[in-house]
Amino acid sequence: MLVLLKALARLSGWSSLVCRLAVVILRNPLRLLGWKAYERWLLTLRLPVGGLALANDPAIVEAVLRNRDGVFPKSSHLTAILRPLIGEGVFGQGGGEAVKDMRKAYFLALAGVPGEEVERVSRRLSREYLARWQAAPSGVAVPRELSRLTIDIVTECLLGGRFTPAQSEAFVDAFFTYHRRASAFLLMCSGNALRDTPALLGRMELEPVGLSLREMIQERFVTPWLDRPEAAWPPFHRQVLDTLRRTSGEVADRAVLEARLLDEVAVMILAGHETTASVLSWLLWELSGGALPDGDRPQAESVDALIQESLRLYPPIAFFLRDVEAVTEFRGKTLAAGSAILVSPWTLQRHKGLWQDAERFCPARWLRKEGAATHDRNTFVPFGGGSRLCPGKHFAGIEMQAIVEEIVSGATLRRVDSTPPRPLGALTTRPHYDFRLAFGAP
Ligand code: HEM
């Protein structure tokens, strides 16, 4: 297996076509592990680039996510995959003081938008989208439409406006392309990461797509603000500027400021939409397949149970990949410095030793308190934890509740496509294709 993976990565460095094929083959690395990923507490394997450990043991999850001594920074492979899109933006950075400072800007900007405002915007835009979906008798491509809706909600709440419909269509198409081309796992399969990474990244052809996405963001959400007085900037832009002023002297240079602002605005748009859109896509797929008894319109409490169960079974960020910076021992196994450790909400939240009927979509478990009472910050981690906990967790909760309530009270759902979606798996678990649903009158 090791030799095969290495050969695949080598060949990928020579041709874009082979590289694309390899990305498809390796898209969901969990498939290589099979049942073991859902039953073992710690699995170690060797990749050409070094050791990789998959941790399902809650005590190890605690140690890795809390990362108190900075021993488990975010993986440098992930940084490489994301750079063409978010530059130096916080999401792709390993850790340390600069990350802590910039994360504060996110928390402050998000705290500055009242929950009622998030709910109001989410409901208004959901109703607008739903009306359009109901006017399309042959159905709409749901993951794509949810991406557009959630981008609009995040940008309207935090970045001072929305894309035009044409810009939003172009943006989600380009982002889906980026997603289909990116594979941190393929980078890890190359024998000599430092030497092979640039060639492999080149063959993935992320640069041109990343560039076009960045241009769209810059044109709509960055450059126009720079020509206006700072007091008129959206709160997020001002928080980022304050942080840059405190931590680096370079903001006097407009080009540098523009580039750094663009990096963080890109993070906010990408982290703030793809996750929510992915969970909701799976939820709507489940609902359209009869996850609710006929005619049953869920109340607020059960909408929450639907969302929790979707976050459990379909966590959008399936892999928290971290570098191991110092020799570490877990469960009697030694992880060498330079190896990698993976906490995966996908395996943790489907682990047979932690969940009853783990594979079944069963919102009722949250109403019975079986979910909430028996699971804690190390066994239910869709929003991550510790030093890299998602800053948008509260925002996302209000937003998803509002969107789902609008949809289940305002429409009936019917499947147009019957092929069950699979998780794409590279950056997020969004469905591998844009399945269509028809939205009828309630
Ligand atoms: C269902 C919705 C969401 C889920 C499940 C989710 C999950 C996550 C997770 C797991 C991480 C950390 C990844 C890691 O440790 O490697 C993260 C980071 C982040 N999320 Fe979310 N997220 C969601 C929605 C949002 C929203 C709505 C926003 C903003 C409005 C947001 C903003 C961010 C940002 C800025 C980061 C980067 C933080 C950092 O790099 O330290 N997220 N999210």
TrEMBL record:
Pfam families: p450 (PF00067). GO terms for molecular function: heme binding; iron ion binding; monooxygenase activity; oxidoreductase activity, acting on paired donors, with incorporation or reduction of molecular oxygen. SUPFAM superfamilies: Cytochrome P450 (SSF48264). Heme binds at residue 390. Its cofactor is heme. The keyword Metal-binding applies. Keywords: Heme, Iron, Metal-binding, Monooxygenase, Oxidoreductase. The keyword Iron applies. It comes from the Bacteria. InterPro entries: Cyt_P450, Cyt_P450_CS, Cyt_P450_E_grp-I, Cyt_P450_sf, Cytochrome_P450_Monoox. Belongs to the cytochrome P450 family. PANTHER family: BIFUNCTIONAL ALBAFLAVENONE MONOOXYGENASE_TERPENE SYNTHASE, CYTOCHROME P450 FAMILY 4. This is Cytochrome P450. The lineage of its organism: Bacteria, Pseudomonadati, Pseudomonadota, Betaproteobacteria, Rhodocyclales.
